[in-house]
UniProtKB/TrEMBL annotation:
Domain Post-SET positions: 219-235
PANTHER family: HISTONE-LYSINE N-METHYLTRANSFERASE SETD1, HISTONE-LYSINE N-METHYLTRANSFERASE SETD1B
Gene that specifies this protein: Setd1b_0
PROSITE patterns xrefs: POST_SET, SET
Originating organism: Piaya cayana
Domain of life, source organism: Eukaryota
Main subcellular location: nucleus
Gene Ontology terms: biological process: methylation
SUPFAM superfamilies: SET domain (SSF82199)
SET domain location: 96-213
Protein name per Swiss-Prot or TrEMBL: SET1B methyltransferase
Length: 235
């Protein structure tokens, strides 16, 4: 049952040659410090001293590649909404800490869990993009189901975002005649989105509000924001 283990051979570079052909199958073994230093010195010299012709060829190519990458980024961000696109990407990368709870204005409200500086994106108004005809049908159906609050946000003449049953925390933002935020329609990759911006500095536990800007109608909706310049009605 005793087999004679073959003698370990060394290669020209000082490293031991693997008899089985695989280093994992031979277990752990120590390497002499002299062999290790010799190997490290050879690898460092090879890495730090590339051929002269390689340096001449690669440096202009790297510089040209960086310049083309910068031009590509600048061209992709040109247009009317370049700053909005950058901010929108930052909004997706780092979301604001928000919570919804009971509000003194109306039912539920959205509150800040961290300080928010002025002119920052707070949250995107998320929902289903529907047409005006579908919005009218759903509004009647919601009334029949007993859903009194409306969570529809008009994007343009043809598109409306319905966040009643498919939305995020943005639908809980209440109206105020003296709001600390405002809504803005931006275009990201040829798609219109509604994003809530902060008008001023917002403290922790302060409620997020914006002006709904409802059209003027005969049937008035009372406003309960309680601000000094309250108009009394939402429409």
């Amino acid at each position: 049952t005793s087999f004679s283990t073959p003698k370990k051979k060394k290669r020209d570079d000082g490293m031991r040659e693997h008899v089985t052909g695989c280093a994992r199958s031979e277990g752990y073994y120590k390497i002499d410090k002299k062999d290790k230093l010799k190997y490290l010195n050879n690898s460092r010299a090879f890495a730090e001293e590339p051929p002269a012709d390689t340096q001449v060829r690669t440096r202009p190519l790297l510089a040209a590649g960086r310049r083309s990458e910068q031009r590509r980024l600048l061209s992709s961000f040109t247009g009317s909404c370049d700053s909005d696109l950058l901010k929108f990407n930052q909004l997706k990368f780092r979301k604001k800490k928000l919570k919804f709870c009971k509000s003194h204005i109306h039912d539920w409200g959205l509150f800040a869990m961290e300080p928010i500086a002025a002119d920052e994106m707070v949250i995107e108004y998320v929902g289903q993009n529907i047409r005006q005809v579908i919005a009218d049908m759903r509004e009647k159906r919601y009334e029949d189901e007993g859903i009194g609050s409306s969570y529809m946000f008009r994007v343009d003449h043809d598109t409306i975002i319905d966040a009643t049953k498919c939305g995020n925390f943005a639908r809980f933002i209440n109206h105020s005649c003296n709001p600390n935020c405002y809504a803005k329609v931006i275009t990201v990759e040829s798609q219109k989105k509604i994003v809530i911006y902060s008008k001023q500095h917002i403290n922790v536990n302060e409620e997020i509000t914006y002006d709904y800007k409802f059209p003027i109608e005969d049937v008035k909706i009372p406003c309960l924001c309680g601000s000094e310049n309250c108009r009394g009605t939402l429409n």
